[in-house]
Structure to design on (148 residues):
């Protein structure tokens, strides 16, 4: 994809504060841009789509993604550690689960908000399942329980 806007997050600067090694570090995980090429298995984004990318690569098909935990995908990669988006272009694996196409090209004044969203975006190839809830069970302190 051609990156049209990116930014630096505080966590991108950790190596320069001595928290992580900084030698030849790729940088950047907040990004938006235009899809220029797609692989043969990509179905949800097309050439020319304006997309918001997630900070974490996920396939959105594994059982963990389907349960709504895309940042823990079986195929997860953190963009800031393996790809880096402080560049002109980036190759985003698992594009269907990682990139979200916008309806048309957003206005320039919306781009900063989309960049902020990319830092927390749960990838959205398909919507995650609703949260699971445990079945209700009677309380032991219920005043309406069976009498002894």
């Amino acid at each position: 994809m051609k990156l049209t806007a990116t930014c630096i997050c505080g966590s991108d600067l950790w190596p320069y504060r001595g928290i992580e090694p900084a030698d030849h570090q790729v940088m950047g995980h907040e990004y938006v841009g235009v899809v220029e090429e797609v692989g043969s298995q990509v179905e949800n984004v097309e050439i020319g789509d304006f997309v918001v990318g997630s900070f974490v690569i996920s396939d959105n098909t594994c059982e963990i993604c389907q349960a709504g935990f895309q940042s823990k995908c079986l195929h997860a990669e953190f963009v800031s550690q393996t790809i880096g988006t402080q560049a002109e272009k980036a190759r985003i694996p698992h594009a269907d689960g990682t990139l979200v196409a916008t309806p048309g090209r957003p206005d320039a004044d919306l781009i900063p908000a989309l960049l902020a969203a990319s830092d927390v975006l749960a990838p959205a190839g398909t919507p995650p399942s609703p949260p699971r809830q445990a079945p209700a069970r009677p309380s032991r302190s219920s005043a309406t329980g069976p009498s002894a």
Notes: The radius of gyration is 20 Å.
